[in-house]
Amino acid sequence: MSTRIAKTRPTMRKAPRQARSRLTVDAIVDAGARILSEAGWAGFTTNRVAEIAGVSIGSLYQYFPDKLSLIDAIRGRHLADSLAVLQKAGAEGLLPAAFAATVARGMIEAHSRYPGLHRVLLDEAPASEAYRDPKSDFEIEFLGLYAKAIAVCRGGVARPEDGQKAVLLSDAIDGIVHNAARRGTLADPAVETGLVRLIGLYLADAAGGDTAI
Predict the structure, then answer these.
(1) What angle in degrees, to the nearest 10, is found between the helix axes of 189-208 and 137-153?
(2) 110 and 51 in one domain?
(3) Beta-carbon neighbour count of residue 47 at 10 Å?
(4) pLDDT of residue 199
(5) Which candidate in 50, 68, 180, 199 could, as Cys together with 10 as Cys, close a disulfide (CB 3.0–4.6 Å)?
(6) Are residues 37 and 127 in the same domain?
(7) Are 103 and 21 in a shared domain?
(8) What CA–CA distances, in Å, run from 203 to 146, 162, 193, 197, 210?
(9) Degrees (nearest 5) of the Cα angle 137, 142, 145?
(10) Using CA of residue 162, residue 102, residue 112, residue 31, what is the dihedral sign?
(11) What is the pLDDT of residue 178?
(12) CA–CA–CA angle 41, 45, 48 (5° rounding)
């Protein structure tokens, strides 16, 4: 299990304001994600990250005071990528089959660039309590988008049980995608096909409201 750290989240030393600075930070975060995916927490050093990112160690420390703040940024981007998949699908008001295809493909793509990253973030890298909070802003928005999709599938009518149904659907998708990443099978067409079917069937059933969860 990953090591826990204080509840106070590690933060960047300063936020990038100019386009050039944002590119530098993006390169650092991307390099960190790549190293974590390929070498794990044991191979993760700020010197190595700076080398892969093509920046000086001084430039790295200009934005990230330590490894924990960098891990925080990597984890934050990983979550943001997953959230963006749901935001895109939800904004289009898709019916079950189309929503299922969009989410399945998007989640697989979000985890395919660095397939080992999520395992390291979950099992090895230190994590602040903020990322374990089931009532965090991220969790509320993330699960809310699933609940909204269920309501959309029944014509926009929300029901009290949609929240629990959203949790189950989210957990099912996470389990399939994350385990496929661990096994190295994210590129297998059968994974996407099965995931699309699971999401579509669950949404259709949950939207009906007559069948128990």
Answers:
(1) 70
(2) no
(3) 9
(4) 94
(5) 68
(6) no
(7) no
(8) 9, 10, 16, 10, 13
(9) 125
(10) negative
(11) 92
(12) 120
